[in-house]
Amino acid sequence: MPPLSSSYALVQQLNAEGNSNIFLYKHIPSNDVVLVKTIQVAAASLDKLTGDTAAFNEMHINNIINKHRHDGIVSMRDGFVANGALHLVFDYSAGGDLLTLMTKKFSASWAEAHAIAIFQQVVSAVNHLHGLEIAHGDISLENIVITDQRDAPISVKLCDFGLAIVHDVTRYTGVGKLYYMSPEMHLRRPYNAQASDLWALGILLFMLLTGRPLFEKATMLDPTFHRFFHAQASDPSTGIKAVLDASPHSSTSTLTPDAVELITRLLRPRPADRLSAAQVLLHPLLKCKPRPFIPTKLTRQRRAMSSPAPRHCHCSRAPVLPRLPVSYFKSITTTM
Predict the structure, then answer these.
(1) Measuring CA to CA, which residue among 158, 161, 163, 159 is closest to residue 174?
(2) What residues does the Protein kinase domain cover (predicted)?
(3) The pTM is what?
(4) Which listed residue, of 131, 146, 187, 224, carries a Cα 20 to 30 Å from 94's Cα?
(5) Where are the alpha helices (DSSP H) in the chain?
(6) pLDDT-flagged residues of the chain (< 70)
(7) What pLDDT shows up at residue 161?
């Protein structure tokens, strides 16, 4: 691909998905390395972009975020149409994404040092978005980038607003990655996308603390979710415990009571019963930052696992790493 303009020089392509591609470019005037997302469009200029609904929506949401910046959200540096594509230019985070970091670094000591602080930063970003009437739609380890990992806690930012919506946050189709999708996303009925963001935060917190997803898919066809749902329906405080107790690899240890309570309140099956992001920020787990207890046998479980990605993932099987197999996390961004 040729340089975007006299201001940018191509470094390399990072990713391709659907009608969009991710590249690294060098911004020649500043010598900064930047990340550029290109989306194929029919429009010849920004003022004619409204006909390309998805591209216009992503540009519009990034413009809103730029007007109301937050330290925990990746901001857009530039946006323009050239060569039949919309180009969105962002600061590049050389630390990579959180999924990649966790596949290499996760351990009980890593979680103790970083999990709660990372989660607090993400919740703060989501709270800011919800205040702007934006629902992210794809909260996941892959969409959290590392900006500074020299000291504990790690500094992170939330990125990628390709599935975000603004103002009317009612949605009619499920989007995102299977591990994080809320139960209502699978029902093919209207749902509140901000409430689904909160569900994704609950899944994210469990993953940060334990190094594994809670279940593969939030439907009754998933036996782990089935167990969780019925336990929580009987007694809301027992849903997470039922999942942990049923696993031979984690039955000897538990998360802290505060962690279990917060995850449980984010994973209420009824969306209206979930804590808001503002309420999560006031929760004792985030205010006190206690040391979490990590199931002691999970490391052995990770080493034993060599299963492919979930059935609904059409991506190629990722290599199994010694601590945290990518195949246990990875699922493609899905629109149902």
Answers:
(1) 163
(2) 8-286
(3) 0.81
(4) 131
(5) 53-67, 98-105, 108-131, 193-210, 223-234, 239-246, 257-266, 277-281, 284-288, 298-304, 326-329
(6) 1-5, 18, 43-52, 149-152, 236, 245-254, 288-336
(7) 94
